[in-house]
Amino acid sequence: MSEPRTLAPPERRVAVVSGGERLGAYHLVTAHDASGPRDPRPGQFYMLAGDECWGGGGDERPYLPRAFSYARAHVEPAGVSLAFLLEVVGPGTEQLARLAPDDGLALVGPLGIGFRPPPDGAHPVLVGGGIGAAPLLCLQEELDEATVLLGFRSAGHAQAAALFSGEPKVVTDDGSVGRQALVTELLASELDADAALAIYACGPPAMLEAVRALCAERGVPAQLALESGMACGFGACFGCVVRTTDGYVRLCLDGPVLDADRLETAQVAGAGHS
Ligand SMILES: Cc1cc2nc3c(=O)[nH]c(=O)nc-3n(C[C@H](O)[C@H](O)[C@H](O)COP(=O)(O)OP(=O)(O)OC[C@H]3O[C@@H](n4cnc5c(N)ncnc54)[C@H](O)[C@@H]3O)c2cc1C
Ligand code: FES
Question: How many angstroms is it from 86 CA to the middle of ligand 1?
Fold first, then answer.
């Protein structure tokens, strides 16, 4: 099967921000990419930076672009409209969340390898934890039919569930939306049903490790979208290596989506301060 990888032009280009919307605890930033590929694959990512206001001089962070899965890509007459779902956790995400229409969004991408189609006859189950819901949005759009399971910290975070079509099953840590439960509890119930499934998951390391272990126990194929600190995004810095059963791989080139059975653990260390 060919790799779900659309190659990025070897350059940084500037997209034009078309919208910035607060969605509960998250931000949805959309931008018009006039000259980039129109067919990124779900699970691929872009390195993003503000065209202006990025690193203000002195030791003002952020210095480097930041990695983001695209959440949606819609082809337009002259280019493609890309949407990114962001959680503000530091200076880079703060700057990106402040972008306004007509601002420039510098980007490189699409990068990495995305999700592979499910094996014949297997029903896809999408499992998202928090901001890990982002790459599952475009994946849901591409699949004919999928079960969507989402776990969030609170009602503010759970507003992102409204971006999915159909009726995703939602649980929260505080019980403010759906049951008070972990999304892996929903997954365990799905796995109990006697059906051929293919699991697609993105979320925090502990959640991905729980998904990996559950699927390994039951012999169900799973693809995990992992995160690690990415300084370049295209294979040059080796900052993103993760250990697999066949040696270390650069997550930006060989991932970010990996088959769960290539991992002994899905607990990947976080990023530094770039
Ligand atoms: C392939 C990929 C796809 C991603 N997709 C999204 C997305 O769709 N939406 C979104 O909001 N975020 C996404 N992220 C995470 C995003 O890149 C980080 O939140 C961002 O780089 C943080 O930058 P900052 O300057 O705001 O915060 P920083 O100050 O750089 O980081 C804040 C905290 O987050 C930790 N951190 C930063 N980056 C990572 C990382 N990659 N993995 C683990 N911990 C990290 C840092 O160690 C620090 O504790 C993705 C990351 C990767 C690698
Ligand atoms: S981020 Fe530089 S090699 Fe992967």
Answer: 9
